[in-house]
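writing this on my phone so excuse typos. first protein, seq and then structure
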Amino acid sequence: MQQEQIIQVKELSKGVESIVAVDWKHPRITSFVIPEPSPTSQTIQEGSREQPYHPPDIKPLYCVPASMSLLFQESGHKKGSILEGGEVRMIIINYAKKNDLVDADNKNLVHLDPILCDCILEKSEQHTVMKLPWDSLLTRCLEKLQPAYQVTFPGQEPIVKKGKICPIDITLAQRASNKKVTVVRNLEAYGLDPCTVAATLQQRCQASTTVAPAPGAKDSLQVQIQGNQVHHLGRLLLEEYQLPRKHIQGLEKAPKPGKKK
């Protein structure tokens, strides 16, 4: 369009090209007519209208590894069982009370039987640590369990996965002609469509965006925006999409106020 002299584009700030003029009298524009939608197409558009985004509920969970299966055996759990933090604490408390491990003189201390020793102590501690405070015992148990998480999207069944959920990753990169771009990955894990996010950012930042396969990630796309757009991206994710800050990394890369790009 610039070659046809319909628009004029200039680089107003480093790495960001903006439209500075439009020839509204150009024949290509004056001859453009918006077609009237047919009743059928109108119905299809209304039916396929996107629902407003609601962030998923993300709950941390714990998976029982083989090394701790004996500790959870009495409560009916085995290797691979998925538990909430509250369930883990209750199981450990019941185990200690049932096996008379609570110190008779100090109820805040728990004696470690052979099973607890094998599950939570390091090798160097096996013959030196005989009892632990409740908070230390529970913390160690949680740390020895394998991470898992549950994601629940509005109106859908919960999805449970092992491991830790990958945060939305925001990075800055240099492209051709030393132009800076903002790259965001892992949007799909939070129910966000990369193409929709790209279109929204293109409009708000007035900068070009592209969507492409994320390197090294199977079935995942990344969004690239021209210039440092971390501030706009952060506002979109935190304020509009209401995603918790702990699930987004790279927000600190936003340009500082008053600093030249």
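second protein below, same order as before
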Amino acid sequence: MFAGLPELGISNGEDLKETLTNCTEPLKAIDQFQTENGILLPTLQSALPFLDLHGTPRLEFHQSVFDELRDKLMERVATIAEGKDEERYGKLEELLEKSFPLVKMPSIQSFLFIVCAVEVKRQIWQDNQALFGDEVSPLLKQYIVEKEAALFSSDLSILHNFFSPSPKARRQGEVVLKLTQMIGKNVKLYDMVLQFLRTLFLRTRNVHYCTLRAELLMSLHDLDISEICSVDPCHKFTWCLDACIREKFVDAKRARELQGFLDGVKKGQEQVLGDLSMILCDPFACNTLVLSTVRNLQELLSQDALPRDSPDLMLLLRMLSLGQGAWDMIDSQVFKEPRLELEVVTRFLPAMLSVVVDDYTFTVEQKLPSEEKTSLTYPTALPDAFNKYLQENRVACEIGLYYTLHIAKQRNKNALQRLLPALVETHNEMAFGDIFLHLLTGHLTLLSDEFGTEEFCSAVFDGFLLAFDRLDWTFLFKTLEAFNFSSEVTYFIKKYIKNVYKCPKAKIYIK
């Protein structure tokens, strides 16, 4: 416990034992030992007997002084390390050299750990998972807080939302950079972080951990850390997918590459599907896949082709299904691709395309000369298959939600009023998830003038938003206020907000 003190000219327990063994007056010997080895501060000598009278043990007093000095020293070391003094490394090395004789003292070890270089810390971390977990845990919590703050920011529009930052920009975040530095080229530490992320994803179902899994790998890729990238079987798949996320579209060439990676998973290596599913569960990946799906469906419609005849569409659905099943796969440890329900392709997608055709037909009708117009009215009901799979299948539900966003982006009031009531009942209440509501609120900025009509306000508030009692109304109202509505629009908004507070369904939930 006291190893190293003699090397610094400080007496230890063995010296006291020898002194007491050879002395004739133990009390005087103890008093002299305390004087010689105590804190050499003249003004303190009169205070110590006062503490004795109050029953304060000398050990307790010296421990408190030690703790205070250690904290001050750590602050000073941190200041030196973060400074721009060219001699700072020399100062830290000199301090370490003087401290190393005390490396076996528990009270000194924490200080030495903080002072030592990250290369040394990696060697310590790889043999002490609990210590590494203590270092990583605050960073993971910070990452989630930052993601949720971005989702609930009122600085929101169609041009600036949660998915606006490029993958490269996101990887410059403080947490990703710190984790990358901590891992370095150490495969064991990288595997530990991945295990932390899997565990937290299972515990919380928070998909932002999936984002961090992909961002961390690509951050190491940016630094050309081949020691890790070459052994992570998801590297090339994630690299290709990252390029798709950057373009917000999966083109035919990259689709073939991604399919090659999935088809290349060999027997006995199925566990890699767990990591691939996490990467596809990343909201940024999911956003890209569904946007590509909606775009693909539009192209099929223009070509009079069926969804099942498109290999690219089938791959997109396959990846969506794999990503949506990430939690179940990792939880069950059954590493097998989930089978996409065939009727999603044969019934749900055709039903959704029929909605698109209805809207297109009505739009064309309105552009005809008055003498050529018929009595066609805009349909209000949706096909039964559309509603059924919106409620029963998560892949279909995701596509339906993004089609709704697509309609809002087109400023298509009629189609939006038709779709919103159907979102009241969706698979696992996906329509009321943070990410979808974030995007929908941003897209509604394009329809700000429509809020001046009773019909549209009724569709948005009565038909959809009032249906859920855990909606973050504070965020919604704050964002709507930032739209700079006209006085007429503001009247209707206030009216419906008042109804929200009166409605027994809407228990106001403030985060």
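Residues 342-367 form the longest helix (26 residues). thats all i got for now
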